Amino acid sequence: MVADEDFRPFRSRRGRLVATVMAVLSLVVFGAVAVLLPSNAGLTTWQPADRVLVGGIGVVIALVCWRYATIRAVPSLDGLLVRNLVATRTVAWSQVIDVEFGGGAPWVTLELDDTDTLAVMAIQRADGQPAMAEAQRLAGLVRDLGEARDRG
Predict the structure, then answer these.
(1) pLDDT tens digits for 53-88?
(2) Longest CA span, the chain
(3) Is the dihedral of CA 100, 140, 143, 118 positive or negative?
């Protein structure tokens, strides 16, 4: 039986914390470097475009970190919305054959009925025991909702 609390979104704890800190540090460090670059440093002359480029690199790094911090998997009665670093995909519960989280894998992997696999980066081994509990919760949802849809 599936309870309402089983539909909480899956999110990485450590990954989100580290990515958020790195995004802020990237903005601060690259912003400071862009502002503090000397106009004339010996043989090198820094132009305004150089400052913009350095600041822009910090923004790009911060955006990648932000995307990593927003990785999640959101379960619903219809399926699982998986937002990873690059792509977002929704799979129906009946498409999921197995939930794998062994062998030192960094995150949960779903084995799908079309022989494809889907990484669920929201459940990461770096989170330790809470990640194992989240993987079991996801496996329970797959078992309960996937099989219920097959029988219905």
Answers:
(1) 999 999 999 999 999 999 999 999 999 999 999 999
(2) 76
(3) negative
